[in-house]
Amino acid sequence: MQNLEAHDLQFKIHALLQFRYVDPRLVFREVAPNRTKPIMGEQSLRDLLWVPHVFLANERSSDILGTAEKDILTSISPDGTVIVSTRISATLYCWMNLQKFPFDEQHCSTVLESWMYNEDDLVLLWEHKSPVTLAPELHLTEYVLLEMFTNETVINADLSDLRHGAFAGNYSSLSFTVHLAREMGFYMMDYFIPSIMLVAISWVTFWLQADQSAPRITLGTSTMLTFITLASAQGKTLPKVSYIKASEIWFLGCTGFIFGSLVEFAFVNTIWRRKRNVEVKKVNSKHVLKQAITPRPARKDMSGLHKSHSCTSLADSATTVSANSFNNYLTVHSIPQKSPSSATLPIISTTDVDRTVPDNPVTIQIEGQTSNVNGNGWTTMTPQEVAIWIDKRSRFVFPIAFVIFNIFYWTFVYYV
């Protein structure tokens, strides 16, 4: 037996096929009482005898081995027992189920059927002792033989079945089936371990700063292309079937994690380039991601504010404004006093941006106000802080999610 060829759904055998039956017309014990040894011959003797016409029902092609003379040996015993031995080479179909590839187990059969004699004329039976013997040197590189069993049955042929020359009837059939399990060493070393390494390499991008577009894009795209090449090389050895295989689930899952790291970079890079700060109620995943996805500017309506003053032209009158200068605006919100005893006059200092040297800062004093630093319980985060916060969380979320994916995957392939 040779290894199964999954892309063609077939396997090859080299077999010694022996038929044994008794033909009363060939008894020569009374004719030659002194002859105790059987009559031996090759194909020429076989052509003179009646031999049951048996064919391989699931064959793709078959040949009788031999060059000038076919390897056919015929033996006739004195009691009329005929043994016909033939060395054959055959390519047989094996309708594999590849849903759990490469963790699959296959049952491949060799089916022998009578061609023209139905069950009324010919019945095929296996020998009671050792009907099928495997060569002791048999070794399959990709599979391990778990068991082998034989079967005897009757095939009902009608006019729609052309295997028997469109003659309806019940035909005797023999089959032996080998139960094979695929070895995992090759696929672990060539596909699964490299896949895990490529997915882990794609996580390196989380340790690079969000504005480093060139290295992060190069790392993500090269990892994705390498993984697609690895997956396509494995897919070329399999037939194009309509159902999803276990290997495809693995490759789709790994592709999703690599693609997710690319999407995460695009997301944090977009946040990094924003100009406005955002305020979050709490620094946790829910509020930070909500503000990152739907950004809103910092809150202006702080609790208790009821009046604002606007001040312009902060520079003194002696300052000469340059041709490309712009006005400075400062809005100071008034905060109600908690008590008359705590009233203070806050002092706000600013400088004119048009000045090269801010030697005369402008001081503004507003009456009836007290100082309060963000007393509403919200936290202000810059876009860069939000991007770094997401990258740090991704360093843990992606590996944990990949471990969970592996737990479900290997549980499915080994226990389901």
Order of helices and strands: EEHEEEEEEEHHHEHEEEEEH
Q: What's the shape?
A: rod-shaped
Number of beta strands? 15
Helicity range of the residues? 25-40%
Radius of gyration from the alpha-carbon trace, in angstroms: 43 Å
Which structural class best describes the helix and strand composition? alpha+beta
Q: Termini separation (Å)? A: 30 Å
How many strands, what sense, and barrel or not for the largest sheet?
Answer: 5 strands, antiparallel
CATH architecture group name of the domain at 3-182: Distorted Sandwich
CATH class of the domain at 3-182: Mainly Beta
Keywords: Cell membrane, Glycoprotein, Ion channel, Ion transport, Ligand-gated ion channel, Membrane, Signal, Transmembrane, Transmembrane helix, Transport
Organism: Anopheles culicifacies
Family: Belongs to the ligand-gated ion channel (TC 1.A.9) family.
Subcellular location: Cell membrane
Quick structural gist:
With 416 residues, this protein is of the alpha+beta class. The chain has helices at 43-46, 185-202, 213-235, 246-272, 285-293, 383-415, and strands at residues 10-22, 39-41, 54-56, 59-64, 72-76, 81-93, 105-114, 143-157, 169-182, 278-280, 307-312, 329-334, 347-350, 362-365, 379-381.
Structural features, described:
By secondary structure, the chain is an alpha+beta fold. Among the domains are: 3-182, Distorted Sandwich (Acetylcholine Binding Protein, Chain: A), CATH 2.70.170.10; 186-276 and 404-415, Methane Monooxygenase Hydroxylase, Chain G, domain 1. 27% of the residues lie in helices and 26% in strands. The chain is built from six helices and 15 strands. It has helices at 43-46, 185-202, 213-235, 246-272, 285-293, 383-415; strands at 10-22, 39-41, 54-56, 59-64, 72-76, 81-93, 105-114, 143-157, 169-182, 278-280, 307-312, 329-334, 347-350, 362-365, 379-381. The strands form five sheets. Strands 1, 2, 4, 5 and 6 form a five-stranded antiparallel sheet that branches. Strands 3-7-9-8 form a four-stranded antiparallel sheet, with no helix packed on it. α3 (213-235) packs antiparallel against α4. The longest helix is centred in the C-terminal third of the chain and has 33 residues, at 383-415. It starts with 9 loop residues before the first strand and ends with a helix. Mean pLDDT is 80; it is low at 301-346, 353-358 and 362-375.
